[in-house]
Amino acid sequence: MTEPLGATIDAAPVKGSGDASWFGHPAQLARLFTTEAMERFGYYGMRALLTLYLAQHFLFSDTTTTGLYGGFTALVYLTPLIGGMMADRFLGSKRSVKFGAILMSLGYAILCFSSTGGAAKPYAMIEGTRYEVTVEGSGEARKQYVSDQGATLRIKGNEDKTVSLLREDGSEARRIAAGGFEAGGERNPLYTFLLITGLAFVTVGNGFFKPNISTIVGELYEQGDRRRDAGFTIFYMGINLGSLFSQILCPLLAVGMGSWGGLGWWAGFALAAAGMAVSWLLFQFDGGKLDGYGERPADANPSRDMLVYIGAVLAIPLAYLLFANLMAYVKPPEGSGLVGYIMSLPIMGKIMFGTFLVAIPGILLWSWQNGDRREFEMMVAAIVLITFNTVFWTLFEQAGSSLTLFADRNTDMSVFGLFSITAGQTQFFNAFFIVVLAPLFSMLWGALARRGLEPGIPVKFGVALVGVGAGFLFLVWGAQFADANYKVGLWWLAGLYMIHSMAELCISPVGLSMVTKLSIARIVGLMMGTWFLSIAVAQYVAGVVAQFASVETVGGEVTNLKVSLDTYVGVFQTIGEVSAVIGLVLLALSVPLKRLMHGVK
Predict the structure, then answer these.
(1) Domain identity same for 171 and 77
(2) What does the pLDDT read at residue 9?
(3) Within-domain flag for 99
(4) Can you tell me the distance from the alpha carbon of 414 to that of 425, in angstroms, rounded to the nearest whole number?
(5) Closest CA to 196 of 38, 311, 2, 58
(6) Are residues 321 and 177 in the same domain?
(7) Is residue 395 part of a domain?
(8) Is the pLDDT score of 16 beyond 50?
(9) pLDDT tens digits for range 299-332
(10) Spatial contact of 201 and 110, defined as CB atoms under 8 Å apart
(11) Structural domain span for residue 294
(12) What is the mean pLDDT of residues 263-273?
């Protein structure tokens, strides 16, 4: 997700519209635009590397890789709820942004150092005996070998989940039964510690930065100023531009392009850290341009600032423990049932699912008891749409996990035969299509509205769900034309991202607006929190869904590309069909939902 448009709460007091000196907007908008663009440059650059870094440098299994990625992005969406509260009550938006920028810069720098200790050393446990693994070749020619009784044997996974050890002439020297082969990586504990610590710093820092810079944008305009929406549109363009360039440049430095092997993972994370540092510098040394904006609340006690900072620092080891617990996750034995699955969930999963499942019926019960019939019906509509929103982002957010691994393993990355891009750079497609298509969609909705034909919010949500499913089915269709190396053409993957971007533009711009319009006034803040909780849950579940596409890897590489392709196609087809059906169900429900919304558009 490049960024859900309108994904922040604009609840700050208005300070004034400022001088119209930057594209007809207050001059301060330029400073905030560039600050946010550089912050998103750092974040999305890091995110473009993370999944591949976990799988190829640390040699984590697909299950651990996608689970940790999902848990990290989930907390990234959850911590702004707390960071926003701290700003509103104690620090003010400006101090919160500066503090968050420092923490995130440190986080990216720590990730940079986590790669300096060398990659994990691959090994394989074969029927209880450990064998060292060597990886030779590069790109599609990479092969994994073990030494057995003086012979060097190539590892090849089979469709029946057995593993063959092949002699140099291709004949089978040994076949290992399903479950008898387990790949692993010997990792230096110090650098694993740095990895998780870096992610924890970024998570906490994001909580202070993300919600509060948008609040300052809102302060630039007087209440009712018609430029406000256009100002936020310009601001969010900065988000997309920052992410677009970083998702090209950070992977380029980390792993190279074509025949150039890049500088190493450290360089990609260093560039992300540099982008974040520039963001902090732009905000810290603003030349007084932001004086009077984002200041501390009038009734706040400055002596409590240090308590907030200390609390934030103490939250870092808490995030560390949650990530470490995610990495220690072990799937329950087959036949454990629902209870066994729930009991085996990591702590983060239990907290998120538990909170969400309590919040939804709890809000409806409160609305039934405290609101009139009209208010209750509008709340029902809001809760239904929030639930469907969770499904959308769960599937959309495969981009950073399973789709990135698919790009690395089963996609021909050649661009018209002229040069090749890397798997991390494929995440650039979403940002590119958002930048190109957002103005077109804005004009489309405007033209339809003038004719009284603009679809309502439930219809847009339904179309988005059908669209995200259609994107996966488009890629499944393209997989039929995979080459002899089981590689799908890059343009099929680009087509998926184009369809997904169009779906995003149907649901993302109207989300928070829908919540504010349908919620009972007394609990708008709670409903905002529930909205962000739904996105955090979606991020976590996205990691769980990606685990179903896990394939056997040795030394960070799959052992059978056909098995890999078949696995991805099977999972993508299932979630594509399920999403399309859910979208059609929502479209069928759009008429009764429209009645429940009582004219809200």
Answers:
(1) no
(2) 39
(3) yes
(4) 12
(5) 58
(6) no
(7) no
(8) no
(9) 878 888 899 999 999 999 999 999 999 998 887 7
(10) yes
(11) 30-119+188-210+233-329
(12) 96
